[in-house]
């Protein structure tokens, strides 16, 4: 991953729910979601620990935000496949 690249990620929470987000630093973001660093989403705060399920690198923030919106609209059973698919 280059310094300017964005990643769309999917994490599985302790209650088996899924959370999708965008970041430029996956290690930092996972630490935030797991309470090891300040920050993180309110949604994951009460559903710790979380673990990374899938991610995809994008070349720009706008591309990452479009992909995130698409993942959030996709049925749960297909979210992993969408992030792992090479042709979007």
Automatic annotation (TrEMBL):
Signal peptide: none
Lineage: superkingdom: Bacteria
Chain segments annotated as coiled-coil in the UniProt record: none
UniProt cross-references to SUPFAM superfamilies, sorted A to Z: GIY-YIG endonuclease
GIY-YIG domain ranges (all copies): 4-82
Pfam families found in the cross-reference section: GIY-YIG
Family designation: Belongs to the UPF0213 family.
Family matches, as PANTHER family: UPF0213 PROTEIN YHBQ
Protein name: GIY-YIG nuclease family protein
